[in-house]
Amino acid sequence: MLREARPERLADVREDPRFEGWPSAHPDMSDFLGLPVRDGDEVIGALFLANKNCPKPDGGCGFTEDDEELLSILAQHAAIALTNARLYERSRELTIAEERSRLAHELHDAVSQKLFSLRLTAQAAAALVDRDPARAKGELHQVAALAAEAADELRAAVVELRPAALDEDGLVATLRTQIQVLDRAHSARVTFTGHGVRALPAAQEEALLRVAQEALHNALRHSGAEHVDVTLGKRGPDTVLRVTDDGGGFDPTTVRRAGRHLGLVSMRDRASGVGGTLTVVSAPGEGTTIEMEAPGG
C-alpha cells in the first residue's frame, strides 16, 4: 500500500483496487490510514491504523486530516528511533572490527614473536641434550621463561577485550558472578559485597572491573592468601572498589625497584584514565589492600 512512499487515507480499504484480500485469520478492516516511516528518502518502515472507533451509528466517520497529522508525528519519532538503532548497530559492528584488528596486531607483534623464539630455543635444547646436557638445561630454563612471557602477553591482550557480560549485566552482577567462579576454583575464600552503586559510564565500569581482576589475580596467584574480600560501594559521590587479602604482602617500593610491577602500573593507568585514583597499602606479612576510587555513580 505504501510503495509510493506517501500517506494513504481510505474510507474503506476493501474497495481500493489494490486490495488483494486478507490473509488467513486476519481481522476484517475498513477505515484505513497508513504513513511511511522515512529516513530521508529511504522508507524504513510503515505505520498503519484501521477501523477507527466512531460514535456515529453508521460507523462511517473514517480517519481525518488531524488523525493523519498525529500519525505523521508518530512516524517521525519512529524514524528517529529506528535510525538511532541502526546507527548504534553499525557503530557496534565497527567497534568489534576495530577490536579484532587491534587484538590481531597485538598477538602478531608480541605473542607470535615470543612463540617463535620459544620454538627456536626448544630446538636448540633438543640438539644439545646429548652432547652438552648443561647447555641444554640452560636452554630449557630459557624455554620456561619465554613461555611465561608469552602467557603474560596473551593474557594482557585478552584482558583488553570488554566482556559482553559487562554490557548485559552491569558491573555489580558481573563482579559477583566472576568472584563466585573464583571462589569455587581456588582454595582461598573469595567474597564480594556490593551495595549502593548505580550504573556508571561504560569506561568507568570497565576500568573498575579490570582493576578488580588484576588485583584478584595477584592475590590468588602470588600472595598465598586464605581470604580475599572485594567490596564495591560509595564514598560521597564517588564509587570505591576495594580488594583486600590476608596474604604475604609486599613492599611496593621494592617491587618497583626490581622492575616487577604485579600489574600496578596497569591498574594506576586504568584508574587515572577515568579520572580516578589507585591506592596500594601493603607490607611483608601484613596482606594487601588495593583501592580504586572513581568519580560519580
Task: List its traits.
alpha+beta; 50% helix; 297 residues; elongated; three-stranded antiparallel sheet; Beta-Lactamase; Heat Shock Protein 90
In short:
This protein is α+β, with helices and mostly antiparallel strands and 297 residues long.
Order of helices and strands: EEEHHHHEHEEHHEE
Radius of gyration: 31 Å
Assigned CATH superfamily of the largest domain: Histidine kinase-like ATPase, C-terminal domain
What general outline do the C-alpha atoms trace? elongated
Low-confidence stretches: none
Mean pLDDT, all residues: 81
Domain count, please report it. 3
Tell me roughly what share of residues is in helical segments. 40-55%
By secondary-structure content and strand pairing, the structural class works out as alpha+beta
What is the CATH topology descriptor of the largest domain?
Heat Shock Protein 90
Quote the distance from N terminus to C terminus. 50 Å
Number of strands: 8
Write out the strand line-up for the largest beta sheet, numbering strands in chain order. Answer: 4-5-6-8-7
User: What summary fits the major beta sheet?
Assistant: 5 strands, mixed
* Level-1 CATH class name of the largest domain: Alpha Beta
Q: What CATH architecture label of the largest domain applies?
A: 2-Layer Sandwich
Question: What share of the residues does DSSP label as strand, in percent?
Answer: 15-25%
GO molecular function: kinase activity
Catalytic activity: ATP + protein L-histidine = ADP + protein N-phospho-L-histidine
InterPro entries: GAF, GAF-like_dom_sf, HATPase_C_sf, HATPase_dom, His_kinase_dom, Sensor_HK_TwoCompSys, Sig_transdc_His_kin-like_C, Sig_transdc_His_kin_sub3_dim/P
Protein name: Oxygen sensor histidine kinase NreB
